[in-house]
Amino acid sequence: MQIVLMGRMAAWCLPEIKRRVAGHHTFTVVADPTTVDQYAAQLTAAEVIVGWPLTQAILDRCPNLKLVQAAGAGVDGMNLESIPAGVQVANTFHHEIAIAEYVLMAMLYLARRPHHYDAGLRSGDWTGSCIWGATPVLPQLYGQTALLIGLGHIAREVATRARAFGVKLVGASRRPEDTPWVDRTVPFSDWEAELPEADWVIPCCPLTPETAGLISDTQFSNMKPTAFLINMTRGRVVNERAAYEALRSGRIAGAALDVWYQYPSSEGESKPPSIYPFHDLPNVLLSPHNSGWTLPTILGRVEDIAENINRADRGISVLNRLR
User: Fold this and answer.
1) Edge-to-edge order in the sheet of strand 2-6
2) Where does residue 247 rank: exposed (0-12), middle (13-18), buried (19+ CB within 10 A)?
3) Mean pLDDT of all residues in 75-95
4) Taking the model in full, what pTM does it have?
5) In CA terms, which of 42, 204, 231, 290 is 20 to 30 Å from 145?
6) Do 162 and 219 belong to one domain?
């Protein structure tokens, strides 16, 4: 088959994919999607496209497609309706364990503030030490409540790890009958009613027209002032201005943010992740959209991609099929 790997993420996987596919295939790597004009013949012959972006202009060049394979879980940048009928579409996961570890790291970091005490002690400041017998100020995760908005792959792994710390778990799901790994489940339509009791608000839902701006001014106003937000799904699930104002004003205690509102367009470009100065806020843990970016994540995805190429070649249904 003729296979096109679109974008640097998919291109990096080429050697690993080749090791895992059966039969003879021709691979074309388009590391920079802005150069697709140079690959007109290869796109015309393409039977499989792996990666993104997948614009209408690219689709129009690919009349022979059998499979469109996302290189990750997110397909919010892909217009599924524009893909011709009869073309299989699939995504892949394997990031949920890595992201769950990030979430627990962020919870401990925000609750126990090791960076604050580390910096103090390096300068000889023992504030907060037990040696003076002062009133303890450190919280613990045990007995706190985490609200998981969406109960998919990521939420399940977060819940498994948070339960080991004694965190109470409330999950909002469209299928609440099949979630025994949380303490209590509510319909997705009722998740906002759980905000006043939540110590941790953790959206685990994909970005869709329904979830864009899901958390905004009203939702922040219903959270405890001691509550934290952890967002590692998509930046636009949380309203940018509302998040900044809630954190700047102390309306909520803090946040860990791994997903953002603007990204650099080229490697090496220096660009802030938001039009608002989140980087000036001492109660925010920032990371550059890498909570799931581990080697096991990528190698797991490679296994799925290679298997789906093999299945498309045999004319059978692929893994993680979206349509």
Assistant:
1) 26-30, 2-6, 48-51, 67-69, 88-90
2) buried
3) 90
4) 0.94
5) 290
6) yes
The reply to whether 127 and 243 lie within a common domain is: yes
Verify that 167 and 255 share a domain, yes or no: yes
- pLDDT over 70 for what percent of the chain? 100
Question: Do 139 and 157 belong to one domain?
Answer: yes
> What pLDDT digit, counting tens, does each position of 113-128 carry?
999 999 999 999 999 9
Q: In terms of domains, do 112 and 49 share one?
A: no
Number of domains in the chain: 2
| Other beta carbons less than 10 A from residue 250's beta carbon | 10
User: Cα angle at 290 between 285 and 294, to 5 degrees?
Assistant: 130
Regarding whether 108 and 16 lie in a shared domain, the answer is no
pLDDT of amino acid 40? 96
Question: What pLDDT is recorded for position 76?
Answer: 78
Domain containing 156: what range? 96-286
